[in-house]
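Structure in, sequence out. Go:
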């Protein structure tokens, strides 16, 4: 298996305790769990120069439901009780264009919106780290995109590491997803990108210890991050390639 040629600035991470010390010795600001407005039912956000309207549930965000591990944010969590909101957010924020009407369109006839190619390439499925069989995802990929596309190029996990009890199933899911790609026949390995807020050094070190048991890991250097994610911001991004 060939390892992607990351820029030399990427920091090779080998020791969980050392990495934890380096990150948590920074002046980490209080982020209040990263909420923009936990009491609002919708948020107007700008991401990558695009205006988004995100619907959220204040009740779920403050939930202490039995069996839950934290409040639920519908923009990032793949759980049954937020699937409806997540699907709604996807549908509400897919770019559309207007169907051309020619040089002289009929009066009072509205143009028809055309869903962009983004919608055709977007498929929502629930993925529960503790109960979902990841192998079933490969069947979906092959069915939707053909046998040659039955692989995953990149796994992006954002703010998923906040409870030590979820570390093992989360890492196991990352491993299973990356194993869907057959690198023995020359395929490029799946890249796993983990972005997280620095909250608990114990939980972070538990995750990194487990993750290093399966992945070669790099920390993304500050030169590749926006100002909001650089040193002393309280956030960090790691990149992993499955060890074979």
């Amino acid at each position: 298996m060939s390892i992607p040629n990351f820029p030399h600035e990427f920091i090779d991470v080998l020791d969980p305790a050392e990495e934890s010390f380096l990150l948590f010795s920074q002046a980490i600001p209080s982020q209040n769990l990263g909420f923009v407005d936990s009491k609002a039912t919708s948020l107007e956000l700008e991401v990558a120069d695009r205006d988004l309207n995100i619907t959220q549930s204040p009740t779920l965000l403050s939930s202490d439901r039995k069996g839950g591990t934290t409040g639920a944010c519908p923009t990032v969590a793949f759980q049954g009780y937020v699937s409806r909101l997540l699907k709604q957010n996807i549908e509400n924020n897919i770019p559309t264009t207007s169907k051309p009407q020619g040089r002289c369109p009929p009066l009072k006839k509205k143009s028809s919106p055309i869903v962009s190619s983004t919608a055709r390439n977007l498929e929502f499925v629930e993925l529960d780290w503790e109960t979902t069989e990841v192998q079933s995802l490969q069947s979906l990929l092959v069915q939707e995109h053909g046998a040659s596309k039955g692989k995953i190029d990149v796994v992006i996990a954002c703010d998923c590491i906040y409870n030590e009890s979820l570390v093992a199933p989360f890492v196991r899911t990352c491993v299973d997803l990356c194993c869907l790609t057959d690198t023995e026949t020359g395929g490029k390995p799946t890249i796993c990108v983990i972005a997280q807020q620095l909250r608990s050094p114990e939980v972070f070190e538990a995750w990194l210890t487990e993750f290093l048991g399966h992945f070669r890991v790099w920390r993304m250097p500050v030169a590749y991050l926006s100002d909001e994610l650089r040193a002393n911001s309280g956030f960090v991004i790691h990149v992993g390639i499955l060890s074979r």
